[in-house]
Specification:
The chain is α/β, with parallel strands linked by helices. The protein is built from 24 helices and 19 strands. The protein starts with a strand and ends with a helix.
């Protein structure tokens, strides 16, 4: 089991205290309300603050761990005003502050909150106002943004993790637990990863953290700060809950894909280009057949000229002679049937680039596994069936408008697993010389493409940033020149194709500056403005 190291939490503290936040209590309470499930769509009971608020507020604010005896006063601090104890810092303990002060502030209280919260006084319910993001930004961070990654580290300072989690996993866990929306992410948070992660076997030393903050008003540091460990039951359910959130990814997991393949014998991994469909197919295949049986995998790629004779077999013309040909699938099938019960996998890349119904022919019926077919191949009658130890994984590009579709007879025999772009994974796998977040860049481009073209398939996958020439160790490190070339001659070209080279649509997607293929400092500045 692992904790985030004390040194990393100190670095997060310094990053957070370098952010100028006006009316810091507003941003603090806003995040607690988000964690309680308050949104701008439906009115929610005010009592949710009492029921759920303390748990969220503890992770955001407590200065004493679960294993320390807490003082009667000043056991927490606003994470957005930790440089010094302000004159308005609440002195009551956190539980009392959450259950009374927050409600008093937002319900029928300060004028400021009336700009952010709408109240149903008859049913004692609240929701956010329609323009709450703009109001919160104007009141708290009008000229900058909250650094998300240091906040996520601070939020997880007490947590015992079952393994070392990546920044992206921790960030996604925070976003899910606090119900952060895309609008909030874009308007309020800077998502650049400014601190390298390091885990430790030791839990955080909060006494060191409290020393950085200093003692509260009218208290003696030696008495207030001294750590007093108490014996309590370790909050295992809480740790399990946190680890479950971190492990919950938006795309279907490898384990789930593997299970679907085992249960259904054949699957199609569909989605836009560059979303790692072929990579996922390779991983799932290797998990199914084991490390020592790589010869049990056959990978082929369909193309417009691929035929029944290539795949199944038949007569072919070779020079001035007509010969019989046993296709690639039948040769592989012969190997499967002569190898006992071990598993085999056929991977068909870009299945919809060929006329699939014509290529597979009558074999489509055999995909049901309990079906045997007698058919004539190259003048010879054969019995065809597909054994249950032969699995098929196909990949399909859903964005190319020139490719064919898959008919219903074939589709019903495959489980279709959609692989969407995973922009957030770029947080862990890429870095840029300029500090620009490629996760933010790709998310913005894809959002603009969908909004402009009204087509969820015309987007760009994350692997556009996976170029082996810029890889160093485990990271793809993009200097300004390489990133400029990638954007101008690959990403922008894809956008232009998607938009049918209509300049108005292109400008809607990337803006009128970036559409002009800028270079040098002008390019970096325009890119920064674009994702701001």
């Amino acid at each position: 089991m692992k904790f985030i190291s004390t040194q990393i939490i100190k670095e997060a503290y310094f990053e957070l205290t370098n952010i100028e936040v006006k009316n810091a209590s507003i941003f603090h309470i806003f995040l607690i309300l988000k964690g309680c499930g308050i949104n701008d769509i439906t009115y929610k009971p005010v009592e949710l603050i009492t029921e759920k608020g303390y748990s969220i507020a503890s992770d955001l604010s407590l200065l004493f761990s679960y294993f320390e005896q807490k003082p009667e006063k000043y056991d927490f601090i606003n994470p957005f005003s930790m440089k010094t104890w302000g004159a308005q810092a609440p002195s009551e303990n956190l539980k009392k502050w959450v259950s009374s002060r927050i409600k008093n502030n937002i319900v029928g209280g300060a004028t400021t909150w009336r700009k952010i919260i709408r109240e149903d006084i008859y049913n004692n319910k609240i929701k956010f106002a329609n323009n709450y993001v703009e109001e919160i930004k104007s009141l708290t961070i009008p000229s900058n943004k909250i650094k998300l990654w240091p906040l996520v580290i601070w939020y997880n300072r007490f947590i015992k993790f079952e393994r070392s989690y990546s920044p992206n996993e921790l960030i996604q866990g925070f976003i899910k637990e606090l119900n952060i929306t895309e609008c909030e992410l874009g308007g309020l948070f800077d998502k650049s990863v400014v601190i390298d992660m390091k885990f430790s076997a030791e839990e955080v030393n909060m006494e060191e953290i409290r020393n950085l903050i200093g003692s509260p008003p009218n208290t003696t540091s030696e008495i207030w700060n001294k750590s007093k460990v108490i014996t309590i039951l370790e909050p295992q359910l809480y740790y399990q809950y946190k680890n479950t959130i971190m492990n919950n990814q938006s795309n279907v997991s490898i384990e789930k894909i593997l299970k679907l393949l085992k249960d259904n014998f054949q699957i199609i991994l569909s989605g836009p280009p560059g979303t790692s469909k072929s990579y996922i197919a390779d991983i799932v295949s290797n998990k199914l057949i084991g490390k020592d049986n790589s010869d049990s995998i056959l990978k082929i790629q369909f193309h417009p000229q691929y035929s029944y004779q290539d795949f199944i077999g038949g007569f072919i013309v070779n020079g001035d002679r007509v010969e019989t040909n046993r296709g690639v699938f039948l040769r592989f099938l012969d190997r499967v049937k002569s190898s006992g019960n071990r598993n085999f996998v056929l991977i068909i890349d870009e299945i919809n680039r060929a006329n699939v119904g014509s290529v597979l022919g009558e074999l489509i019926q055999c995909l049901d596994r309990n079906y045997m077919l007698s058919t004539l191949i190259a003048g010879k009658q054969e019995l065809l069936n597909i054994p249950k130890n032969l699995f098929i994984i196909a990949t399909m590009n859903t964005s190319d408008r020139t490719l064919g579709s898959i008919d219903f007879a074939l589709r019903r025999r495959f489980v279709d697993i959609y692989i969407a772009p995973n922009e957030s994974v770029l947080t862990d796998t890429t870095k840029t010389e300029s500090g620009i977040s490629l996760a933010d860049l790709l998310k913005k481009i894809n959002t603009q493409l969908k909004n402009t073209l009204r087509n969820n398939e015309l987007v760009i996958g994350q692997t556009v940033f996976y170029n082996e020439t810029v890889k160093s160790g485990e990271l793809y490190q993009w200097n300004n020149e390489n990133l400029e070339d990638l954007f101008n001659y690959k990403i922008l070209s894809m956008v232009e194709d998607y938009c049918n080279r209509e300049i108005n649509k292109i400008n809607e997607v990337v803006g009128d500056k970036l559409s002009g293929r800028l270079t040098g400092v002008a390019f970096v500045n325009a890119l920064s403005e674009y994702i701001a």
